[in-house]
Amino acid sequence: MNLALNDTVCMEKYLELFAEKYPDDLHIIQLDNRPLHQSLNMSIPENIIFLFQPPYSPELNPIERLWLEIKRKLKWEIFENLEQLRKR
């Protein structure tokens, strides 16, 4: 099974379980514009709607700011192991 298909199968199962757990609510799931998210050929439960972010809008995805900060702080550093990284 290729990676994209595996991601699709996992996402479908997650959505199915989530929709079943909260059947009386409408759920909006925000996704970035990753090509994989746009090309997914999967069944989506009726109580779930995908909302895609506009292209090139990292400000709408807070984790992107965190990654930028981590990269800035760790730039040019080499760690021998995970423990060194944790201490940093």
Keywords:
4 helices, elongated, 2 domains, 88 residues, mainly alpha
Q: Can you walk through the features of this model?
A:
The protein folds into two domains: 1-56; 57-88, no CATH class. It contains four helices and two strands; from the N terminus they run H-E-H-E-H-H. The chain has helices at residues 3-21, 35-39, 62-74, 82-87, and strands at residues 27-31, 48-52. The N and C termini lie far apart (38 Å). The model has no long low-confidence stretch (mean pLDDT 84).
How many independent structural domains? 2
Look at the helices and sheets and give the structural class.
Answer: mainly alpha
| Order of SSEs | HEHEHH
Rough shape? elongated
User: What Rg do the Cα atoms give?
Assistant: 18 Å
